[in-house]
Amino acid sequence: MLIALIGENCSGKSTLAERLQKQRQATFFVGKDYLRMAKNEEEAAELFRQRLATPTDEWLVYVISEQEQVGFLPKEAKKILVIADLATIKERFAQRMHGHLPEPVSRMLERHHGKFADENVLGVLDTTTTSIEENYERLLALVE
Known about the structure:
The protein is α/β, with parallel strands linked by helices. Helix content is 40%, strand content 17%. It has one domain (2-143): 3-Layer(aba) Sandwich (Rossmann fold), CATH 3.40.50.300. It contains five helices and five strands, in the order E-H-E-H-E-E-H-H-E-H. Strands 2-3-1-4-5 form a five-stranded parallel sheet, with helices on one face. The model has no long low-confidence stretch (mean pLDDT 96).
């Protein structure tokens, strides 16, 4: 089964993927991890597309934060949108940057906020006020 966790930076995608890895022994890929599959980008991209498209009983999770990465997904992928409000994303991003969010980064987050809103997905998980545990259970209900 292929699950795509799609969303902006700091929306909670990786936290959910890590939970799937621990509890379901899922293999997960983040962003451009596929580049490790071959020496050149085109070959790596093709190998990755094939890996994602190959039916398996294994739980595969692809964590996506860039729109072009959605193009790697086969139509059978179970796409889940993970969201958080802008203030929460900025707060989480600032924590990653040792408590300080530079103004250019803040503006970049504002420009990208909501960029996946029109994506056709099975469901939306909002990590702003809903706990990771609740979102994890909802994720399982959506994909199983």
